Amino acid sequence: MSTTGLPAPARGLGALLDAVSGARMAATVATLAGRPFTGRRVGTAGAAAARAWLDRRLRDLGAAVTVEPFTAPRVPEVYAAPAVEWHDGTAHHQLGFGREVAVHLASADQPLARRGDPAVAGAGDPTGRWLLVPAGMPLSDAYGHAHGALGLLVGRRVDAEGWQYTMLAGPDPGPLPVLTLDTATHAAVRPGGWFATNTPIRRRDAAAANVHARWRTAGPGRPDLPLTAHYDGVGDHPRLWQPGAADNGSGVAVVLETARVLAGAGALPDGAGLSVALLDGEEAGALGSACHAARLRRAGAAPLVVNVDGAGHLDRAAAVEAGGPAHGLLAALDQAGRHTGLPLAAGPVASDNRRYAAAGLAAAGLAAVGPGAVGVGAGMAGYHSPADTADRVETATLTAVARLVVATGWLAGAAQTTVPRQALPRLAARRPRRAGPRRRPPDPRRHQGPRRATARRAAHRRALTAPPPRPGAGRGRRTGRRDRLCAPGTGWEVGVAQAAAGIVAELCRRIAAGELRPGETVPSTRGVARELDLPVSAAARALAMMRQDGLVEDAGGAGPVITEQAPGIASGWRPPARRRRSSPAGAEFLALAVRTAIESADADGLAVTSVRRIAVELDTDFATVRKHVGDRAQLEVLMADAIFAGHEPPAPSGDWRAQLEALCRAQLLMYRRHPWLAEAVSFRKPLLSPHVAEHTEWAVRALAGAGAAPDTARRVAVTTASFVRGHAMRLAQEQRHDELQHEEPQHEEPQHGKPRHGEPAADVERGTALFEFGLERLLDGFARLVP
Questions:
Q1: Do 289 and 240 touch, CB atoms closer than 8 A?
Q2: CA dist 268 to 12, 13, 219, Å?
Q3: CB–CB of 290/320 below 8 Å?
Q4: Which of 355-359, 521-525, 619-623 has the highest mean pLDDT?
Q5: Which of 127, 376, 525, 708 is deepest in the core (most CB within 10 A)?
Q6: Distance between CA 12 and CA 390 in Å, rounded?
Q7: pLDDT band, residue 766 (cuts 50/70/90)
Q8: What is the largest CA-CA distance in the chain?
């Protein structure tokens, strides 16, 4: 495939965007989702065939191609369709593999069918029975009730088409066979009758390989843009074809099309680098990106990585997740979204981009966002199932995402270009600063004697004889300008923010008309304010907006200059929408601020939650929030108290041990839902957190009612609460460590889209078992202190 005919840089970004072909991307998706590639699971013949095909495509585009092999350890494989039969006492049922039943990743390999009565885990004798795990019970608890059982049956939701999703990254196999049943079947199976099945699943090391292609090598100090997407899928099951069209044939198609456009002659400025990495082993734990990121880190590279995962269906916005030193890359993405008209939403993109971010590289992940959800995977139909077919990938979505990536690459490639200083027409150039120390003008207030008294009397006479100020007039020498600025009919009624937007609009008009050309110096803020007769603050804000939107950049001591991409941006520039500031109202505003802080800590951690961030989230000023919540320490106390207020202690049962066990489990559940909470809770200052203290007092009353001495009851209550808090902090630390190691902790069921890798369910289950063991031993010791 030739890259000739692509536009030269003089034709601008618009010509590059027009060169994007949705039909070409749709054909790529159809090929990758074809039956010859058999779902492209890592280590299979289908993945090798897809890799060879992609190698040829990249070479046809004129790239230098290399292959980076590595090993994907212990990749699960269902090597036969399980034969599942169930008799409910009156009728015989044969369950369909892929819809009603699937093999759980934690299952042991059991090739031969086992038959036994169904029973409920935790109720009755489990020996020789298939145990139905109740909803909400962790597998670790189910294992505790499964001594002598044949296996476990876990309920799991299916997608809109009735398919169970397939995962390759997750927990290690346990001691028993485990099947997942759709929720309707799981609810229908009851004790009585019989259940028979096998679980044919094994794990093997797989040969994997990344495909790297490079068109341009970055020069010294110039940006390098690697475009990445994983080409592997979850693979076919016996008698089940899983094409993997949206995940991630669509991402590969976008990356190939973007590379084709940007690799054309003159599409990127001299010195900017361009490469593509098509990654293997993403579904098995983001293994390919981990290998590539480690290689970049060893080489000392500092690229701007753009990863695309899921571009099949776009209903509202494209999700963006940034990591590492990605400020410049985010600015380019924001400008590209405005220019192409594609809305962007900050959301989790649990894919290869997290491996690059963990390695300290600037990385941004992109995914389409579908209806009703902001997250990963909602932009694809039939996630990890036979429903993920090529005909369900929208060509319009492919085109929109590819245009966004092309614009991002073009803007990022031109971001560090330097231009000579020139004079601006129609606007006064900035005067050079005079060398030497600046003299301070004389201050009349420093004069002594009769001069000072005379100056005061003159000022007093002027104040008495001056006309009254007009309504809305400001103070000082800018009063006249502010009156004109806020006068009805001038278009500036809302103040400095709109005045700044008007200045940017005027300069954009001049840039689009050719009156201001790339490389020309923008005058100082005072020069702009003087010519347009507007406040200096409005001019300063206007220049800041232009820097943010990529219209101007700083060029050493020459001051801000018009960027090379400014003509393309100026034609489509629109002022940002004006947001209304919230009006604080006492207790309601305090509750809103605390709730916003809790949401912020749940999403990004306690370390980044601050009073200033809450003010930004609520679109109000810092002083108002500080007035209501106090400083950071007081904010953390309020957050912890609000969560404990929403979880009252359980009802008394008369048994102190059962009451303490229920209280500790309830507190552990709170800590799991809010991993940062254990850091914010304080038992040394209980009076600051009345609802936290209420939990402790409830435990003291339970112990005192059993006959414990008051001091003993309080010490036991505080020690027990500290045990739960310490265990929760250890779990949170292990979870953070696991995220750094695996980057994508994956949950039992996908929440609003694509699950994340490295499922922590097994770790949490093991942690629950340790918690129960420690709590039992702790209470055994306390039993000697309670009569």
A1: no
A2: 10, 10, 13
A3: no
A4: 355-359
A5: 376
A6: 33
A7: low
A8: 114
